Structure formats: structure tokens, C-alpha cells
Amino acid sequence: MQTLAKLNTKILNVNVRPEMQLLLCCASTKIDAAKTEQIKSLVQRTDLDWQEITSSAWKHGLIPLLYTNINAIASDTVPQDVLEQLRKLFYTNAQRSLQLTGELVQLLRLLQENGILAVPYKGPVLANLLYGNIALRQFCDLDILVQPQDVLKFKDLLISQGYRPKIELTKTEEAAYLKDKSKHTYNFIHDSKRIMLEVHWRITPRYTSSIEVKYIWKHLLSSSFGGMEIYSFSPENWLLLLSTHASRHRWEKLSWLADIAELIGRNPEINWQMLIQQASEFDCRRMVFIGLFLTYNIIGITLPNEVLQAIEADPEVVSLSSSICQQLLTRNTDSHRFMQNTFYQIRVREGLQNKLLYFELFLRWLMRDKNVLLDE
Questions:
Q1: What is the CA radius of gyration of the chain?
Q2: 311 — phi, psi (to 5°)?
Q3: What strands lie across the sheet with 164-165, from one edge to the other?
Q4: CB burial class (10 A; 0-12, 13-18, 19+) of residue 321?
Q5: What is the pTM of this model?
Q6: Which uninterrupted H or E stretch holds 146?
Q7: Do the beta carbons of residue 115 and residue 149 sit within 8 Å?
Q8: How far apart are the first and last CA of the chain?
Q9: Tell me: the pLDDT tens digits for 309-330?
Q10: Is 274:236 a contact under the CB 8 Å cutoff?
Q11: What are phi and psi of 153, to 5 degrees?
């Protein structure tokens, strides 16, 4: 992992406030001597707005890393009421993560017992894979990928376990929903456990990327989780999936960049040529490049020179990354965020057909098609 010798006061021409500098310094499980000194220097400032730091950390999914690193490095310097607030948030998140992990293991066993092939996606599995500790990553729901023909079988199992569909659909509406190219999850809620489960049959909506789910099913790896054998993804495919998911939401959380940094740091053997080739085939190369470029500049990672050169050769990547950086690192109150997201989604696609696919969705939204964003 790359570390920075001095504080990041400006990133992609965006001025970075001390509060955000501290958050970025703590957004990693690997804190070397240089970052340790940066953290110590920052927490000694008397003008720090700790309320802003805490609220930003929660918003960006970085409470676990912020608390863990500050507690280890500067617990005597941070105001004790602030440290206590961070500690409570950390343990509240850890308790919730344990509950969700236990539920996920039960559901995966249920699926295995009923002969349904499933892959847990994001959530506890990603926390364990990238951080080695489910308490070090914030997540609020569960995601499980199944094959399209198994969605309704899974639905019946979930109902038997006390879940209900988030949105009630008739049989006709349900059939149309599962065929709609703007859909990729069927969401269920367990009211007493306060758990939402997203059942995926696609990785993303078709308007977000062209990743073929058949490709994902053909390239699964075996892994161990919660005392059972599960299916997971290769590091290269994790990068594809993390990038397309974050791109769909225009990279609104810093924790998604922290995830990419941890993934790259733990997998030095990543086949970059294969990754770029596959991303190009699925028209998500620009999404992957933006994720790598943002992580390189904001979190600090080492990238092969040829990869960095390929990224910087695309002016759209640099332009879009700068705009996203402005949104992430400043107190942005732009009221035109919807239009920004729309233009981003069109610009990030490289194929004309896929640009038109997103534009079609945008027109449906303008016509107030209430079905367009039911799975949001």
C-alpha cells in the first residue's frame, strides 16, 4: 500500500479540510509510521470539529476504522466524550454485524438444504474477506445471489422464515418485475429482526453495466465462512463487482474506496490485464478505472505504471473522478444531484447502445413510471 509523506491538503484540485484529512488517514487497516504521525498531529488541533468527523464517518461507513485507529494511536489526545461516542457507535455496529452474520449463515444453510445454489454478496462475507473481522466494516443488510430460476423458490423459503416482500406484487406484476432490465433485486424484510435481504439474480440492473451473470456463475471460487463452505469471487471479479455497485451510486461513500484499497492490498497477484480485458467486454472499464483512480488519489494505493497510464489516458475518467472527489470531500449541498447522477451514468458508459439504455430509463422516470426504481 502507498503511504503519503505529508498531509493530503489537496486531492484532485479539491481542498481537503482537517476533519476529512483525519478520516482519510484512518480509512485503512494498515497504518504505517507516516500515517501514525499524521493522525497524532491532526488530533492535537484545537479547531477540529469532532461532530463533523463523527457524522461524516458514519455517513461514509468508516466508524469502525476511525475508532479502531484513533483508539490505538491517540486515545489519550482525543476528547474523552468523543472517544466514548465513537466506542459506542463501534460496538453498536459490531453487535448488529454479528446478528446479520448469524442470519446469513442460517439462510445459506437453508438454501443448501433445499438444493439452491447461492453466493453471499457484500455484507459479512466482504467484511471478513477484506478486513479479517466483520466488526471493521459497516453494512446494514444482506445480499445473496441466486440463479434466476431459483428466485421464487427462495422467496417461498424466506416467507416460511418470517420474511415478507418489501413491495407486495401480484403474480403478473412479479413476473414482469423479474424480467424488467431495470431490476436486479427482489427485497425482503424480517420485521422482528429488523433485517432487509436483497435477493439478486443479476449483479446490477442492465442500465448500470453489462456484466453477464452467466460469467459470474462460471467463475466462482470455493471459500470458507461461518464454519461452512461457500462460493465467492476471484479478486478480479470482486473489483468488477465493487466498482459497478459503487458506480451505480456515483461513489457516494468513502468506504467503497477503502474496500478497493483493502482488496488490492491483500491480493498483490491481481491479473490486471485480465481485469481490464473483462471490464472492457462488459462496458464497465471506465467504472473500474474511476474506482482505481479515486482510491489511488484519496486513500493511497500502489498501481502498476501501465494501469495508471491507461487510466490517465481516458480524459472522461479524470474529469468524472474530479467531480466525484468534489462531492466526497467537501460540504457539498448541490441541489442538482439527480441531474449530476444522470449525466454521470451516461458519460461513464463507453458503448452507445448502453448509453441509450440508461437514457431510456431516464425517460421512463420522466414519464413517472412508478416501476422504474422499485428496487432502490
A1: 21
A2: -65, -50
A3: 118-120, 142-146, 195-200, 185-190, 164-165
A4: buried
A5: 0.92
A6: strand 142-146
A7: no
A8: 34
A9: 999 999 999 999 999 999 999 9
A10: yes
A11: -65, -45
